[in-house]
Amino acid sequence: MRWWLGMVCLVILISCGRKGPPVPPEAARPEPPSDFRIVLHPLFAELSVEVPVEDIRGQSLKKIKAFEIEKVARPPEDRGPELRKILRVPFGRSPAETPRFYYRDRNLRPGWCYTYRLRAIKGFRSRSDWTPPRRFCWSIPPKTPENLEVRVLIPHTVFLSWSPVSEDLHGFPLQAPVLYRVRRRSLTEETAFPPFPETSFFDTSARRGERYCYTVEPLLSYYDTLIPGFKTPEVCLTP
Length: 239
Description:
- The protein has about 240 residues and is mainly β.
- It contains 1 helix and 16 strands.
- The strands form 4 sheets. Strands 3, 4, 6, 7 and 8 form a 5-stranded antiparallel sheet that branches. Strands 11, 12, 14, 15 and 16 form a 5-stranded antiparallel sheet that branches.
- Strand 14 and strand 15 form a beta hairpin.
- The longest helix has 16 residues.
Protein backbone atom coordinates (compact mmCIF):
# COMPACT_ATOMS: atom_id res chain seq x y z
CA MET A 1 0.00 0.00 0.00
CA ARG A 2 2.80 2.42 0.89
CA TRP A 3 4.55 1.48 -2.35
CA TRP A 4 1.42 2.26 -4.32
CA LEU A 5 0.95 5.65 -2.62
CA GLY A 6 4.59 6.49 -3.33
CA MET A 7 4.14 5.77 -7.03
CA VAL A 8 1.01 7.96 -7.17
CA CYS A 9 2.85 10.89 -5.54
CA LEU A 10 5.79 10.45 -7.94
CA VAL A 11 3.48 10.52 -10.96
CA ILE A 12 1.76 13.66 -9.67
CA LEU A 13 5.09 15.41 -9.11
CA ILE A 14 6.32 14.51 -12.58
CA SER A 15 3.05 15.67 -14.16
CA CYS A 16 3.18 19.00 -12.36
CA GLY A 17 6.69 19.61 -13.66
CA ARG A 18 5.87 18.89 -17.26
CA LYS A 19 5.86 21.70 -19.78
CA GLY A 20 4.14 21.93 -23.10
CA PRO A 21 5.94 20.99 -26.30
CA PRO A 22 8.77 23.38 -27.21
CA VAL A 23 7.71 26.33 -29.35
CA PRO A 24 9.75 26.89 -32.53
CA PRO A 25 11.42 30.34 -32.70
CA GLU A 26 9.28 31.38 -35.66
CA ALA A 27 6.11 30.84 -33.61
CA ALA A 28 7.34 33.15 -30.83
CA ARG A 29 8.68 35.94 -33.04
CA PRO A 30 8.03 39.55 -31.98
CA GLU A 31 5.19 41.63 -33.28
CA PRO A 32 6.42 44.09 -35.97
CA PRO A 33 7.70 47.45 -34.68
CA SER A 34 5.08 50.20 -34.94
CA ASP A 35 4.96 53.95 -35.55
CA PHE A 36 7.92 53.96 -37.95
CA ARG A 37 9.13 57.55 -38.47
CA ILE A 38 11.92 59.23 -40.43
CA VAL A 39 12.92 62.76 -39.43
CA LEU A 40 15.42 64.54 -41.67
CA HIS A 41 18.14 66.78 -40.23
CA PRO A 42 20.78 68.83 -42.12
CA LEU A 43 23.44 66.10 -41.80
CA PHE A 44 21.54 62.85 -41.19
CA ALA A 45 18.24 60.99 -41.22
CA GLU A 46 16.86 59.80 -37.90
CA LEU A 47 14.83 56.58 -38.00
CA SER A 48 12.73 55.53 -35.03
CA VAL A 49 10.11 52.90 -34.14
CA GLU A 50 8.17 51.80 -31.10
CA VAL A 51 9.75 48.65 -29.70
CA PRO A 52 7.32 45.67 -29.73
CA VAL A 53 6.27 44.51 -26.26
CA GLU A 54 4.64 41.20 -27.25
CA ASP A 55 5.29 38.27 -29.54
CA ILE A 56 2.75 37.10 -32.10
CA ARG A 57 1.14 34.83 -29.45
CA GLY A 58 0.45 37.81 -27.19
CA GLN A 59 3.17 36.87 -24.70
CA SER A 60 5.25 39.67 -23.15
CA LEU A 61 8.77 40.12 -24.53
CA LYS A 62 11.53 40.37 -21.94
CA LYS A 63 14.20 41.58 -24.35
CA ILE A 64 14.85 42.52 -27.96
CA LYS A 65 18.31 41.45 -29.07
CA ALA A 66 18.74 43.76 -32.09
CA PHE A 67 17.05 45.56 -34.94
CA GLU A 68 17.65 44.99 -38.63
CA ILE A 69 17.34 47.90 -41.04
CA GLU A 70 16.95 47.27 -44.76
CA LYS A 71 18.24 50.24 -46.75
CA VAL A 72 17.63 50.46 -50.50
CA ALA A 73 19.21 53.28 -52.52
CA ARG A 74 18.15 54.22 -56.06
CA PRO A 75 18.49 57.32 -58.23
CA PRO A 76 15.39 59.55 -58.45
CA GLU A 77 12.51 58.31 -60.61
CA ASP A 78 13.86 54.76 -60.13
CA ARG A 79 16.37 55.10 -62.96
CA GLY A 80 19.70 53.33 -62.65
CA PRO A 81 21.07 50.72 -60.24
CA GLU A 82 19.54 49.64 -56.93
CA LEU A 83 21.85 49.26 -53.95
CA ARG A 84 20.52 47.16 -51.06
CA LYS A 85 22.05 46.44 -47.66
CA ILE A 86 20.97 45.12 -44.26
CA LEU A 87 22.21 46.94 -41.15
CA ARG A 88 22.12 45.06 -37.85
CA VAL A 89 22.02 47.35 -34.80
CA PRO A 90 22.41 45.74 -31.33
CA PHE A 91 19.70 46.63 -28.81
CA GLY A 92 19.72 44.10 -25.95
CA ARG A 93 17.23 45.88 -23.71
CA SER A 94 13.74 45.41 -22.35
CA PRO A 95 10.90 47.14 -24.25
CA ALA A 96 9.64 48.40 -20.88
CA GLU A 97 12.96 50.16 -20.21
CA THR A 98 13.48 51.57 -23.71
CA PRO A 99 10.12 51.85 -25.49
CA ARG A 100 11.53 53.49 -28.65
CA PHE A 101 14.50 52.59 -30.86
CA TYR A 102 16.46 55.33 -32.67
CA TYR A 103 19.04 55.12 -35.44
CA ARG A 104 20.84 57.96 -37.24
CA ASP A 105 21.98 57.31 -40.79
CA ARG A 106 24.74 59.75 -41.78
CA ASN A 107 25.75 57.80 -44.87
CA LEU A 108 23.58 59.70 -47.36
CA ARG A 109 24.65 60.57 -50.90
CA PRO A 110 23.21 63.57 -52.79
CA GLY A 111 21.18 62.60 -55.82
CA TRP A 112 19.87 59.31 -54.36
CA CYS A 113 16.53 58.23 -52.94
CA TYR A 114 16.38 55.88 -49.96
CA THR A 115 13.78 53.37 -48.84
CA TYR A 116 13.93 51.86 -45.35
CA ARG A 117 12.10 49.22 -43.36
CA LEU A 118 12.87 47.69 -39.96
CA ARG A 119 12.26 44.50 -38.02
CA ALA A 120 12.96 43.35 -34.47
CA ILE A 121 15.26 40.43 -33.62
CA LYS A 122 14.45 38.37 -30.52
CA GLY A 123 16.97 35.61 -31.17
CA PHE A 124 18.03 32.88 -33.58
CA ARG A 125 15.31 32.46 -36.24
CA SER A 126 12.97 34.68 -34.24
CA ARG A 127 12.52 37.83 -36.31
CA SER A 128 9.45 40.01 -36.61
CA ASP A 129 7.83 40.90 -39.91
CA TRP A 130 9.10 44.06 -41.61
CA THR A 131 7.51 47.44 -41.04
CA PRO A 132 5.91 49.12 -44.06
CA PRO A 133 8.66 50.93 -46.03
CA ARG A 134 9.29 54.67 -45.88
CA ARG A 135 11.12 56.69 -48.53
CA PHE A 136 12.83 60.06 -49.07
CA CYS A 137 15.27 61.62 -51.54
CA TRP A 138 18.46 63.39 -50.51
CA SER A 139 20.49 66.36 -51.72
CA ILE A 140 22.91 68.83 -50.12
CA PRO A 141 20.87 71.00 -47.72
CA PRO A 142 20.46 74.74 -48.32
CA LYS A 143 22.45 77.40 -46.50
CA THR A 144 21.11 79.15 -43.43
CA PRO A 145 19.11 82.31 -44.24
CA GLU A 146 20.92 85.54 -43.45
CA ASN A 147 19.88 89.03 -42.31
CA LEU A 148 16.88 87.91 -40.27
CA GLU A 149 14.97 90.92 -38.94
CA VAL A 150 12.03 90.72 -36.55
CA ARG A 151 9.98 93.76 -35.52
CA VAL A 152 6.56 94.75 -34.26
CA LEU A 153 4.36 96.56 -36.80
CA ILE A 154 1.19 97.02 -34.78
CA PRO A 155 -0.07 95.29 -31.62
CA HIS A 156 -0.58 91.57 -32.23
CA THR A 157 1.42 91.63 -35.50
CA VAL A 158 5.11 90.72 -35.80
CA PHE A 159 6.90 91.07 -39.14
CA LEU A 160 9.87 88.89 -40.14
CA SER A 161 12.13 89.28 -43.19
CA TRP A 162 15.38 87.69 -44.39
CA SER A 163 17.58 87.34 -47.47
CA PRO A 164 16.71 84.58 -49.97
CA VAL A 165 18.80 81.41 -49.98
CA SER A 166 20.30 80.49 -53.35
CA GLU A 167 23.25 78.24 -52.39
CA ASP A 168 23.72 74.91 -50.65
CA LEU A 169 25.93 74.24 -47.63
CA HIS A 170 28.97 73.84 -49.92
CA GLY A 171 28.38 77.19 -51.63
CA PHE A 172 27.08 75.77 -54.93
CA PRO A 173 23.91 77.12 -56.62
CA LEU A 174 20.75 75.26 -55.71
CA GLN A 175 19.01 73.35 -58.47
CA ALA A 176 15.65 73.18 -56.72
CA PRO A 177 13.35 75.73 -55.03
CA VAL A 178 13.72 76.66 -51.36
CA LEU A 179 10.84 76.99 -48.93
CA TYR A 180 10.99 78.50 -45.46
CA ARG A 181 9.47 77.43 -42.15
CA VAL A 182 9.10 79.97 -39.33
CA ARG A 183 9.31 78.54 -35.83
CA ARG A 184 8.06 80.48 -32.82
CA ARG A 185 8.81 79.74 -29.16
CA SER A 186 7.28 81.23 -26.04
CA LEU A 187 7.18 80.24 -22.38
CA THR A 188 3.99 78.24 -22.95
CA GLU A 189 4.27 76.69 -26.41
CA GLU A 190 6.26 76.09 -29.58
CA THR A 191 4.73 76.63 -33.02
CA ALA A 192 5.97 75.60 -36.46
CA PHE A 193 4.16 77.45 -39.24
CA PRO A 194 3.59 75.72 -42.61
CA PRO A 195 6.40 76.16 -45.19
CA PHE A 196 6.09 78.91 -47.81
CA PRO A 197 8.31 80.35 -50.62
CA GLU A 198 8.37 84.05 -49.61
CA THR A 199 11.20 85.69 -47.65
CA SER A 200 8.92 87.57 -45.28
CA PHE A 201 6.22 86.58 -42.82
CA PHE A 202 3.46 88.30 -40.84
CA ASP A 203 2.66 86.70 -37.49
CA THR A 204 -0.81 87.97 -36.63
CA SER A 205 -1.39 85.50 -33.80
CA ALA A 206 1.15 86.99 -31.36
CA ARG A 207 -0.32 88.11 -28.05
CA ARG A 208 0.57 91.50 -26.65
CA GLY A 209 2.93 91.44 -23.65
CA GLU A 210 4.17 87.86 -24.26
CA ARG A 211 7.80 87.25 -25.19
CA TYR A 212 8.43 85.33 -28.44
CA CYS A 213 11.58 83.94 -30.02
CA TYR A 214 11.63 83.34 -33.79
CA THR A 215 13.87 81.31 -36.07
CA VAL A 216 13.70 80.52 -39.79
CA GLU A 217 14.48 77.08 -41.24
CA PRO A 218 15.31 76.66 -44.96
CA LEU A 219 13.82 73.64 -46.75
CA LEU A 220 15.01 72.35 -50.12
CA SER A 221 12.15 70.88 -52.13
CA TYR A 222 13.71 67.86 -53.85
CA TYR A 223 11.63 65.04 -55.43
CA ASP A 224 8.74 65.39 -52.96
CA THR A 225 11.14 65.63 -50.01
CA LEU A 226 11.75 68.72 -47.89
CA ILE A 227 15.43 68.65 -46.90
CA PRO A 228 16.13 70.99 -43.97
CA GLY A 229 19.13 73.26 -43.61
CA PHE A 230 20.39 74.77 -40.37
CA LYS A 231 18.02 77.25 -38.72
CA THR A 232 18.88 80.87 -38.09
CA PRO A 233 19.79 81.98 -34.56
CA GLU A 234 16.75 82.99 -32.54
CA VAL A 235 15.58 86.59 -32.46
CA CYS A 236 13.35 87.45 -29.49
CA LEU A 237 10.99 90.33 -28.73
CA THR A 238 7.83 91.25 -26.82
CA PRO A 239 4.96 92.74 -28.87
